[in-house]
């Protein structure tokens, strides 16, 4: 046994007490702050569910066509969506999609500015990098429970947990993309008397867009990976079906809902990746170096 | 000659510019000032001396070439003129204004309006079309879209890239990309153009064509061009004046002929040995001035030695004429051979 050097019990008690204090005194304020998030999620979910299934299919197949200009991906997307419909998973899939989209949008809103800040200051990077590691490696239940205590079970803690888990790759890849822009191009831009923001928006962001898009792709994938956990605290959707399937030992229900998540992942992964490739080809980074 | 110039004729004036790379440059600077060499300073402090007390006067309307091998500090030198690199010590005056005292905002205005730059690695924006690249400097300056595209189109035409306006840089060859870089700098219509090994990445034939084009452009536009190269032949071909840089210090500065005919030291002599002297030396520097009987063949005084060589197969001397076509002197085979013969200390001096 490791010898007891100091008594850690007061520390634990302090942490628990302060959380309880926050829950007692500040939960209304927290909820008010998170309210826009809930609005966003509900809005997306309402729109997706209200839109007729054939329109959503047409839109996604159309986007797949725009991303690749070939017939393969649109066919894969069509078959995947038909699977969701036939298996009676359509509405759950829309709920899950709404959670994923809301989490991705919020993550983009926070991560890209943070990534930009990181790319410009070594000190910020030193502080943020371990924080991102923590967000990705800390088991999600550890922060899920306090968020549930503060917000109560429901969509907000589910969304927050998803964002915490899914945002780090976007921050990292934004930072990486901005820093790996060809220094010769940056110097040329500087020599023409550009302001820092002209360089950021005119050179750095356009040239790192393929990398940033790879980050968005990672974020969508990680958001989907969280849906089962999110459904445990009231997010609903495909994750809830999986959970029910496990609970009732109904393997088929779990399997089909699980496949539904896989199918969604395939759709969004392939579409975002194809857009990334298209961008990269357009910029032709490799050849101008 | 116009050796002594008024300050107002100077486009760029550098005084004692020193650059030391490292965490504590001041300490290394003191060591350097006590007379230690670049290698000694590096060994003692682990600081790299980029430039060592460089003073240059660059007159308006000149092509001034800074020549040196890699690591001589020539790229560092050119980046001081538009302050892409801050010097550790020294003074840089451009058009009478102290560049180092400019605020960030003044510096941006200065970069937009006074100095344009062409880069060895082109530095084109890969996500923009050729015409948008050429118009980039004007866009940064805030020129309205229609006007900047019109001006960009004109310069694209001048550098011979008409028809490529909507292409992406990566679709062009290296030579074409550098033309885009050149057009981008010229479109700004600044008095000063900085060219950092602008032609070094190009293959010899294209390079030669670009050099001719540059000299022609300079003649018609009268810009001050600070040109960096490691190629002595290139320097001789385009330069009005040359400064040779080694270990961050200027070894010799003068007209191309001066450097070829009177190399200041062993290092420059090594360059000179490899060079085609017949191309470097103008007839006017070695001609005998005065009244001579009219010669059957004459060349203008701006001709180079290689152009008179063929005449010597048949003749002892060739007449030299000035701009008006009047004969002002002659050049003899002996003089030419004397100038072209390998420089040997003690022999052939003066």
Automatic annotation (TrEMBL), chain A:
PROSITE patterns: ABC_TM1. Residues 93-272 form the ABC transmembrane type-1 domain. It comes from the Bacteria. One of its GO terms (biological process) is choline transport. The chain crosses the membrane at residues 47-66, 73-90, 96-119, 140-167, 223-243, 255-272. It is a multi-pass membrane protein. It is found in: Cell membrane. One of its GO terms (cellular component) is ATP-binding cassette (ABC) transporter complex. GO terms for molecular function: amine transmembrane transporter activity; carnitine transmembrane transporter activity. PANTHER family: GLYCINE BETAINE/PROLINE BETAINE TRANSPORT SYSTEM PERMEASE PROTEIN PROW (PTHR47737), GLYCINE BETAINE_PROLINE BETAINE TRANSPORT SYSTEM PERMEASE PROTEIN PROW (PTHR47737:SF1). This is Glycine betaine/proline transport system permease protein.
UniProtKB/TrEMBL annotation, chain B:
The complex is probably composed of two ATP-binding proteins (TmoW), two transmembrane proteins (TmoV) and a solute-binding protein (TmoX). It comes from the Bacteria. Residues 29-272 form the ABC transporter domain. It is a peripheral membrane protein. It is an enzyme of class 7 (translocase). It comes from Devosia subaequoris. Keywords: ATP-binding, Cell inner membrane, Cell membrane, Membrane, Nucleotide-binding, Transport. Belongs to the ABC transporter superfamily. It catalyses: a quaternary ammonium(out) + ATP + H2O = a quaternary ammonium(in) + ADP + phosphate + H(+). Pfam families: ABC_tran. It is found in: Cell inner membrane. This is Quaternary amine transport ATP-binding protein. Its EC number is 7.6.2.9. GO terms for biological process: amino acid transport; glycine betaine transport; response to osmotic stress. GO terms for cellular component: plasma membrane. The lineage of its organism: Bacteria, Pseudomonadati, Pseudomonadota, Alphaproteobacteria, Hyphomicrobiales. GO terms for molecular function: ABC-type quaternary ammonium compound transporting activity; ATP binding; ATP hydrolysis activity. Its main location: membrane.
């Amino acid at each position: 046994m490791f010898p007891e050097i100091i008594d850690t019990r007061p520390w634990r008690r302090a942490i628990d007490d302060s959380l309880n204090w926050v829950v007692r005194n500040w939960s209304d304020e927290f909820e008010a702050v998170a309210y826009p998030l809930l609005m966003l999620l509900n809005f997306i979910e309402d729109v997706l569910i209200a839109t007729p299934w054939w329109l959503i299919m047409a839109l996604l197949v159309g986007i797949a066509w725009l991303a690749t200009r070939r017939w393969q991906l649109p066919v894969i997307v069509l078959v995947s969506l038909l699977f969701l419909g036939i298996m009676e998973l359509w509405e759950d899939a829309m709920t899950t999609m709404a959670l994923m989209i809301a989490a991705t949008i919020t993550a983009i809103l926070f991560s890209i500015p943070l990534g930009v800040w990181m790319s410009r200051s070594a000190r910020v990077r030193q502080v943020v990098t371990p924080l991102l590691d923590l967000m990705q490696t800390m088991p999600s239940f550890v922060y899920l429970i306090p968020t549930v205590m503060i917000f109560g079970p429901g969509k907000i803690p589910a969304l927050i947990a998803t964002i915490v888990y899914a945002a780090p790759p976007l921050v990292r890849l934004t930072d990486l993309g901005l820093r790996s822009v060809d220094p010769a191009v940056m110097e040329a831009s500087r020599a023409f008397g550009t302001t820092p923001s002209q360089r950021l928006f005119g050179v750095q962001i356009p040239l790192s867009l393929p990398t940033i898009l790879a980050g968005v792709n990672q974020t969508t994938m990680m958001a989907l990976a969280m849906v089962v956990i999110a459904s445990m605290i009231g997010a609903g959707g495909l994750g809830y079906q999986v959970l029910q399937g496990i609970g009732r030992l109904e393997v088929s229900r779990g399997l089909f809902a699980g496949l539904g998540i896989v199918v969604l992942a395939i759709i969004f992964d392939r579409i975002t990746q194809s857009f990334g490739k298209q961008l990269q080809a357009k910029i032709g980074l490799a050849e101008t170096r | 000659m116009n050796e002594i110039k008024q300050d107002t004729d100077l486009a760029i004036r550098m005084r004692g510019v020193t650059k030391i790379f490292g965490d504590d440059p001041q300490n290394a600077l003191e060591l350097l000032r006590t007379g230690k060499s670049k290698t000694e300073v590096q060994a003692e402090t682990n600081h790299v001396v980029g430039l060592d007390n460089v003073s240059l006067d660059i007159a308006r309307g000149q092509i001034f070439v800074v020549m040196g091998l890699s690591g001589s500090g020539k790229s560092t030198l050119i980046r001081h003129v538009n302050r892409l690199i801050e010097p550790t010590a020294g003074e840089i005056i451009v058009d009478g204004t102290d560049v180092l005292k400019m605020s960030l905002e003044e510096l941006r205005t200065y970069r937009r309006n006074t100095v344009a730059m062409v880069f060895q690695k082109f530095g084109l924006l890969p996500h923009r079309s050729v015409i948008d690249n050429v118009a980039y400097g004007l866009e940064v300056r805030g020129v309205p879209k229609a006007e900047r595209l019109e001006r960009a189109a004109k310069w694209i035409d001048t550098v011979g890239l008409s028809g490529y306006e909507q292409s992406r840089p990566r679709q062009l060859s290296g030579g074409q990309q550098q033309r885009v870089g050149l057009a981008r700098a010229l479109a700004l219509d600044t008095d000063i153009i900085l060219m950092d090994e602008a032609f070094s990445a190009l293959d010899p034939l294209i390079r030669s064509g670009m050099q001719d084009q540059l000299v022609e452009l300079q003649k018609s536009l009268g810009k001050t061009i600070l040109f960096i190269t490691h190629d002595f032949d290139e320097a001789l071909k385009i330069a009005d004046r040359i400064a040779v840089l080694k270990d961050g210090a200027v070894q010799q500065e003068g007209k191309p002929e001066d450097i070829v005919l009177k190399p200041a030291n062993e290092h420059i002599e090594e360059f000179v040995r490899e060079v085609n002297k017949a191309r470097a030396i103008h007839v006017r520097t070695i001609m005998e001035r005065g009244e001579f009987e009219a010669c059957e063949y004459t060349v203008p005084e701006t001709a180079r030695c290689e152009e008179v060589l063929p005449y010597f197969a048949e003749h002892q001397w060739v007449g030299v004429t000035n701009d008006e076509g009047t004969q002002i002197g002659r050049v003899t085979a002996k003089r030419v051979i004397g100038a072209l013969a390998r420089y040997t200390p003690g022999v052939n001096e003066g």
